[in-house]
Amino acid sequence: MQKIWRLLLFVCLCAGFSAAQGSLRSLTILHVNDLHARLEPDADHQGGFAYLATAIRREETGCRACLLLNAGDLVQGTPVSTIFRGLPLYKIGNLFGFDVSTLGNHEFDYGWEMVPRFVAAARFPVVSANVADASGRLIAGRAYTILAVNGIRVAVIGLVMQDLAGFETPDRMGPWRALPVVETLQRYVAEVGQRADLIVALAHISDPEAEEILRRVPEVAVVVSGHNHKGLTDAQVIDRRVHVRVEGYGRELGRLDLRVDLARHQLDSWNWRRIPVDAAKLAPAQDVASLVAHWEDRVARRVDVPIGEATREIAGPELRALLERAMAEEVGADFGFLNAGGIRDKLPRGTLLARHIWNIMPFDNRVMIGRFCGAQLPEVVTRGRQVDPRHTYTLAVTDFTVANQAGKGQLGTRGLEFPRAGPLLRDALIDWIRQKRVLP
């Protein structure tokens, strides 16, 4: 009798083990963020859309259960995007084969009216749960999508940072506003309910918002984020839930290999890798390279024009100071101020092209000029320079700064008036370098 009981126990244990193993399924999430229209490799031979496509296709080869996700800011950063208002990037992006994409803040840079055109041009779902008008209508048309991969029902919910308005001017946002990230996500998690085995937040958000999702929305197993261009060194893990992000500008591709427990709707295990996109070691995908060349040819005559020389590379705070000086001198101001986040590249050593300035300053920001007594000038403007509190000084900033004076990295004040409009900042910088001829 004892032997029979042992045999029954063994059978039950085997059955339980088999059932547990049968509820585990594999899934690979490939992901990118903040591609910012960087169609060509950078000066260090990193990135480039044709090389990124090759890296994606290499990782997809032999992958039975793969999803490719884009966490926003596909547009804005190079002349093709600026001149043609972002639309070519979605046409080229179709060749990547995204399964799902979400909106970033820079998708609004050309005015909210372009967002529906991006969604229409995309041959992949564009999801965004928390950008809505007063009636609750979503600008992207859908908050999430549910995909079936290897027997796993994967819900992907799109999100953008709640402070979206702080990254745009009011005219670009129009009637649209960003709703709270976590509360909106919780609403759609409840709506998805039992229709999904795995919930992914595809989110263009700040790091604190990503951490808040992991802590407050336990139904979300994976957060794939964008917005911060620096990739995470390691996956952020809280209670067996995972947050990942790679470096922007197409310099990296992320690969997150998962084992999903269908019975418990949670992760059993995971492994995350950041894969460099090294243009010196990869062959370009010819279909992508051909379309990139088509669009680059359409802007080359306008931007690949020599404007001066640089005796060395100029980047970081030194570049910011140089550009502020250039802006001030071009409009006859005493001070110039640029928010650090508005500078998107560096000046290389050697011949400078107009393209380099377009890459540094891709935004169509206009110089705005105001006159203020020294006591009104914030420290971020004077930076230690002696000013007479009673003397009147001229300050040049951008229209973006005027609209977001108190925003992060801005003037830190409110109510300063800049009644005079100058040239586009990009044009002013190009003209200044032409006059200087050589930057020491």
Relevant terms:
440 residues, Purple Acid Phosphatase, chain A, domain 2, 2 domains, 5'-nucleotidase,  domain 2, 6-stranded mixed β-sheet, single chain
Structural class label: alpha/beta
Radius of gyration: 25 Å
The termini sit apart by: 94 Å
Sheet with most strands: strand arrangement: 4-3-2-1-13-14
CATH class of the largest domain: Alpha Beta
CATH topology heading of the largest domain: Purple Acid Phosphatase, chain A, domain 2
Question: Biggest sheet, in brief?
Answer: 6 strands, mixed
Just name the CATH architecture of the largest domain.
4-Layer Sandwich
- The proportion of strand residues reads 25-35%
* Uncertain residue segments: 7-20
- Summed up, the helix count is 14
Shape verdict = globular
Helical content band = 25-40%
Mean pLDDT, to the nearest integer, reads: 94
Our count of domains comes out at 2
Instruction: Give the beta-strand count.
Output: 21
CATH superfamily of the largest domain: Metallo-dependent phosphatases
